[in-house]
Amino acid sequence: MNLEFIQALDDIEKDKGISKDVLLEAIETALVSAYKKDFGSKDNVRIEISAEAGEVKVFSRKEVVEDVENENSEISLTEAEGIDSKYTLGDIVEIEVTPANFGRIAAQTAKQVVMQRIREAERDVIFDQYKEKEDELITGTIQRFHNDNILIDMGKTEALLPPSEQIAGERYEIGERIKLYVVEVSTTNKGPRILVSRTHPGLLKRLFEIEVPEIFQGLVEIKAVAREAGQRSKMAVSSSDTQVDPVGACVGPKGMRVQAVVNQLNNEKIDIVKWDDDPEVFVGNALNPAEVVSVDINKSDKIAEVVVPDFQLSLAIGKEGQNARLAAKLTGWKVDIKKESEIEAEPDNLEEIEANASELKANLEKFEEEAEAAEEISETVNPDDDVEEATEDLIEEMSEEVEELEKNTKEN
């Protein structure tokens, strides 16, 4: 090690931001291990590096004791006084044991330590740089394929696009530049690990933030996103300015803004709907493009019962239930869709029927009690079979009427 090496440490401190003192401390620690390994020493040693000249010295450190039990770490008082009469019991004596060819070993070890520290510092810089970009949009170049994973060149490092984050049916080619959503940045033994996605709902949100100036200005806000990547998405937006139509702002003139996002997402269909604090209105909007007749909210079960025209039922549900499913994800409500004809078939006087059934049932119970009393009297006073038979027929007829009313009530 020489003066040029020390000057190089000064340059590294300026360029890489790694403290010179930290580097020297790391080199000293590494040289202790190198000395013990190469020279088979078991002594307790200390390395001293001159920050001015770059000179390296090795000192064996021993404690002054009365009787020496371990020659690697202890020295007798008599021997210590032979070195310097000021030593007393318990003092630490340092004896220089620098090998003749230790300079070459020191230079080699120092170089390895410095290179390692530089790599670690660069990894830390990259980690800090991309950690700030979590939940943000980045652009990278497809570098290579590894199994089903895609490695993205980010300039100073690589990002990982696993199969689970790739859009089904989307083709990827080496050298192609694509926009990605940063899901997570973590540290590993090999450096920072950057996980990116093409399927995350956040990607849709960030793309619209780029295309729609009103979102950047804070006039339009994206309130919720539901996505089935590569097929269809729904996005709810609101406006802080009554003069700004949030849906129109996101669609853009002649649909240019939304089309720009669609082109970035493998022609994924995107429904933009207006957000509303009223869940009935919001659920109705979320089922766009289907028309909605009415929405009934069941807050306890978190269910929205939606009525649509008969000819709009398939549109409201969507292919394989996709439209209803995305509306449920977007709103957070379970959506139950019925066609209008089913609701119209239900009687409007259901409450009246129920009341009449209850009243008739009460009258029947009262009549049965009076009939029983009359029957007891007729048994003691020459019973008339015709009267008794007529009474039984009347009771049976009234019971059947009550049962019919109860049946109709349950069906409706």
From TrEMBL:
Cleavable signal peptide: none
GO molecular function: DNA-binding transcription factor activity; RNA binding
SUPFAM superfamilies given in the database record: Nucleic acid-binding proteins, Prokaryotic type KH domain (KH-domain type II), Transcription factor NusA, N-terminal domain
Region annotation (Disordered) ranges: 368-389
One Gene Ontology term from the biological process aspect of the record: transcription antitermination
Domain S1 motif intervals: 135-199
Record key words, sorted: Cytoplasm, RNA-binding, Transcription, Transcription antitermination, Transcription regulation, Transcription termination
Record text on subunit structure and interactions: Monomer. Binds directly to the core enzyme of the DNA-dependent RNA polymerase and to nascent RNA.
Protein name: Transcription termination/antitermination protein NusA
Species the sequence originates in: Halanaerobium saccharolyticum subsp. saccharolyticum DSM 6643
